[in-house]
Amino acid sequence: MAHLSINPDLLSTLKDKVVVLTGGATGIGRSTVKLFYQHGAKIIFGDVADVHGTSLEKELGSERAVFIHCDTTSYSSQLNLFKTAIQKWGRIDIAVANAGISLPADPFSPDADIEKEFSTAEIDVNLKGPLITSRIGLHFLRKNGREGGDLILVSSIAGWKECTGLVAYTASKHGVVGIMRGLHLSAVKEGVRINVICPWMTKTGMVKGIERGWKEQGLPENEPEDVGKAIVLCATANRGDGKHKGAVTPFAGKIVWVAGGESYEIEDNLQRLEPEWLGKENAEVLKRGQDFLMAEGTSWDTAKAKN
Ligand SMILES: NC(=O)c1ccc[n+]([C@@H]2O[C@H](COP(=O)([O-])OP(=O)(O)OC[C@H]3O[C@@H](n4cnc5c(N)ncnc54)[C@H](O)[C@@H]3O)[C@@H](O)[C@H]2O)c1
């Protein structure tokens, strides 16, 4: 596990960078928009919460912070978000898939009515949304040539840990880690770094149900800005000459857990210790399989496969 902290020298690399972010009206997204703005970036942010989105645009001024109504479950709505950035500033350097919801009523509870269909909105917003952001984001980020681009996906502690009572949410957030694992190795060859943020308890509207009990337990909490800093860390880790403390470069394919206001990279050790938890022989044969799947000429599409 690597403890990460921001090297302030890298923050100036955000000047005039173009950021597209979803779910920017409240909570973590709102704090992240402000951080990018403070460091000189230009931001298009989308959300369904128009009143909060418009108020943030007003607070920052629409020259460098533009709010667009965007429902991330709609492909055309996200396309419009990204195209607005292109029309306005001609390029996109950083894309952040942050919009998310959680539905606290548990459809798996013993007293849930089996006759009633349950909502799968968490899958739509938390998984389909980031899939769309990733596809459109990659399309524009890969155009940046040598400078490359950064795609940052906001998952959750529920992206890698048990999370009782939030089944669909947990499945959706595991899926967000899956987007990174499915896309990162090919994207990095095109200069696009994909990293995932997994916040633990963060004081936003989303955690109202557990906030009081959590505090009574004395458990660690994040301010929304702490998660925003982790997003900014990912967006700047490969820019400029310096390094963020604890960050290996290229900083890509990483999972950053944010807990008690601190950021920790956890994916590298999971990969490094694979022979230990999977067994040496299994790890070796798995590597051969992975090498085959990544080789030139291997494709899941029979029309393209040469191997
Ligand atoms: N707060 C936490 O403890 C915590 C922990 C882990 C992960 N997260 C994740 O962080 C992200 C931000 O959540 P938050 O805690 O700031 O909560 P939040 O509710 O304050 O922010 C979520 C934002 O997403 C927007 N949104 C919801 N559905 C949308 C849609 N279809 N299209 C566009 N925007 C939509 C909301 O209007 C809101 O502004 C989410 O992905 C969430 O799952 C939060």
Automatic annotation (TrEMBL):
GO terms for molecular function: oxidoreductase activity. Gene3D superfamilies: NAD(P)-binding Rossmann-like Domain. Keywords: NADP, Oxidoreductase. InterPro entries: NAD(P)-bd_dom_sf, Sc_DH/Rdtase_CS, SDR_fam. It comes from the Eukaryota. Belongs to the short-chain dehydrogenases/reductases (SDR) family. This is NAD(P)-binding protein.
